[in-house]
Amino acid sequence: MAQPPSFDYLDYLGNIQPSVPSDENGIPVSFPETLERPQLPPVALERIAEFEPELADVPVEYARDALAYMGLRVMGVAAKCKLRPPHLVAGQNEVNLIVTDVGLSCLPTHALVIHPPVDPFAPLPTGEPTWMNLPHSRDISIVPIHAAILAANCGRLPDRWPQSRPQPPPSKILFEGGEIANGYRVPLVPFCLPYPKAFQPLAQYMYNHHKDELLNSLVRMRVPLGVNASNYPPIYAESPAMRKSIPRKARLYHVAYQCVVQVGANLPLIHEQMQLVEGFWKNLVALAVSDDGLWEVLQLAWEALVLAMTWARGIRAQIARDHALRVLEAANEGRQVMEEDRSGRDMRFVADYMRAQMKEGSRY
Description:
Blueprint: H1 9-15, H2 45-51, H3 60-74, E1 81-84, E2 94-99, E3 110-115, E4 141-145, H4 147-153, E5 173-176, E6 179-192, H5 199-208, H6 211-218, H7 248-263, H8 267-287, H9 292-332, H10 342-361
Parallel strand pairs: 3-6
Antiparallel strand pairs: 1-2, 2-6, 3-4, 5-6
């Protein structure tokens, strides 16, 4: 099925963010406050029916709900599947799926060959052409997937997918790690993404729609959400309904705080997380994923990281000023600065600064 020609997502992604100067760490000095959510093509029922014909006459919303329930049942399947061989030959259109649980049903229907867009300036590969010596070969990953789950969540997918009914490979019973494993053959689907490293949390969310798990995968926190303990604040309540009374600003401050204390106000580590979230956003745009809950988590993660970066820069500026004053005082007194306690002083600065910020956040 052809995609609507009115939206060129590659052109959109290439022009949405203006370039800004960087600091001494190579980190941009400013970031957009939010990640723009463009108008995206909707999920098409005919794409869902292509992989699940029994849903052909069901409204998209009901089909998505049915597949979400299916996703909860099969989301652990991939952990029990392995792909062989690991090296793919160009032109190969199937791969062996090794299943270590002989009683497993609802097997993955396809294997995605995930890769970034080809760099037009990259040198041409030499030797025998294979998947693995393409210009982007180091970034290739192969992921087993249930195509219907993708179709229920994505408004933009590759046009033509091969039919899939897992078939036994030449040797049906294979030995994997000393145990008997069933083997099946599933078709390969080239799957280009702007940021392949951010596909795993998206795929996991498509299967389970678990917001806490998604947020934890996008933002590294000292205490991740979803902790089942009575001594944690209400934001950790097991039931999402119990968190609705928590203002968004308070949640934002909490996530940013947990991020800063987890990385010790390390600017490059926070920036690394921001790059992951930005890549996750690019993948959403490329695949036209319009799930409101997912976009809510994405915006919270991004805004929390922007806030964490602001706080971390404030902390680092205070630490630098403190160190400069100590050096000046030591020079005036004719002594050397004692460096052995600098780490402890830095951590106290982090704690004091964050205590002040959270006091501000408690007003919301």
